[in-house]
C-alpha cells in the first residue's frame, strides 16, 4: 500500500497548560520526500517537533508512522522505530569527542554487526568530512556549523527512517547555512526521508519537495517548495521581498 505516507499527522492539538499552541494541524510526509514546515518565531515549529518525538502529549488528533498509530508511543520507542530527531547544534555533548558523540547516536538502535557500524560511520564521515578530521576533538570546541553537522551526524548513526531536523540553520553564517542545506539535500537524495522545520525560507523551500506554512499554531498553506518560493504572500512574509 504505497499510498500510505510514511508519516501522517491528523488534527494535532498540543497545549501548554491552558494555552493551546497547536490548533489542529494536519500534514503528511511520503517515503523519500523532503518536506519543510516553515514558520516564524512562535508559530509552533518546535512544539510540533517535540510532539512528533513524543516529548509532548497530544490533546487531540493522531500521529501515524508507517501505518501504525504512535500517538501514545513513548519517545524512546519512537526512536527505536526509526523516527529520529537531530537536536539543534547546541544539543551536542560538549565534553565528549566527535567520535563519542556519534556513538551516542546508535545507543537506542544498536548495530547487530560491527561491519554495519563501520559502514554507517563511514557514510556519516563521507557526508561530513570535517567530522572525520575532528573525530578526537571535544564537541564544545567545534564551531557552530560543525556542532550542527555533529548533531545531524549523530542522528544519522541511528539510521533514521524519518529524520526530523529542528532549525538546522539557526545561528549560523550564510555560507555555513548553504553548506548544511546542501548536505541535507544529499542525505535525502541518498534515500532518507526528511521533515525539516525552518525559518530560513529561501534555502529550505529551494530544497524541498513540499512545504507547509505554519502560522500561530495552524497550517495556513501548503504546496510544492518551488511553488511557494514564488508565492507572493510567502515572499513578503518569509523572503523579505514583495
Ligand atoms: P521559535 O522559532 O521561536 O522556537 P516556534 O515556531 O518553534 O518558535 P514554539 O516554540 O513551538 O514556536 O511555540 C509555539 C507557541 O507556544 C508560542 O506561542 C509559544 O509562546 C508557546 N509556548 C512554547 N513553549 C511554551 C511553554 N513551555 N509554555 C507555554 N507556552 C509555550
Automatic annotation (TrEMBL):
Signal peptide range equals: none
List each copy of the ABC transporter domain by range. Answer: 7-241
UniProt lists the family membership as follows: Belongs to the ABC transporter superfamily.
Name this protein carries in UniProt? Vitamin B12 import ATP-binding protein BtuD
Q: Which gene encodes it?
A: btuD_4
Amino acid at each position: 500500500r504505497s499510498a500510505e505516507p510514511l508519516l501522517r499527522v491528523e488534527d494535532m492539538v498540543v497545549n501548554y497548560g491552558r494555552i493551546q499552541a497547536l490548533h489542529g494541524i494536519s500534514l503528511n510526509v511520503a517515503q523519500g520526500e523532503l518536506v519543510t514546515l516553515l514558520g516564524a518565531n512562535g508559530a509552533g515549529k518546535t512544539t510540533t517537533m517535540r510532539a512528533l518525538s513524543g516529548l509532548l502529549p497530544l490533546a487531540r488528533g493522531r500521529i501515524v508512522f508507517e501505518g501504525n498509530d504512535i500517538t501514545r508511543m513513548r519517545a524512546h520507542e519512537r526512536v527505536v522505530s526509526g523516527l529520529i530527531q537531530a537536536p539543534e547544534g547546541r544539543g551536542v555533548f560538549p565534553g565528549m569527542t566527535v567520535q563519542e558523540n556519534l556513538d551516542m547516536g546508535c545507543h537506542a538502535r544498536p548495530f547487530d554487526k560491527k561491519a554495519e557500524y563501520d559502514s554507517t560511520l563511514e557514510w556519516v564521515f563521507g557526508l561530513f568530512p570535517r567530522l572525520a578530521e575532528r573525530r578526537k576533538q571535544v564537541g564544545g570546541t567545534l564551531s557552530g556549523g560543525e556542532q550542527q553537522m555533529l548533531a545531524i551526524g549523530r542522528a544519522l548513526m541511528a539510521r533514521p527512517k524519518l529524520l526530523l531536523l529542528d532549525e538546522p540553520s539557526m545561528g549560523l553564517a550564510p555560507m555555513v547555512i548553504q553548506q548544511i542545506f546542501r548536505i541535507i539535500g544529499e542525505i535525502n537524495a541518498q534515500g532518507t526521508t526528511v521533515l525539516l522545520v525552518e525559518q530560513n525560507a529561501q534555502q529550505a523551500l529551494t530544497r524541498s519537495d513540499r512545504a507547509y506554512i505554519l502560522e500561530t499554531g495552524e497550517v495556513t498553506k501548503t504546496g510544492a517548495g518551488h511553488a511557494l518560493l514564488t508565492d507572493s504572500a510567502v515572499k513578503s512574509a518569509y523572503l523579505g521581498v514583495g
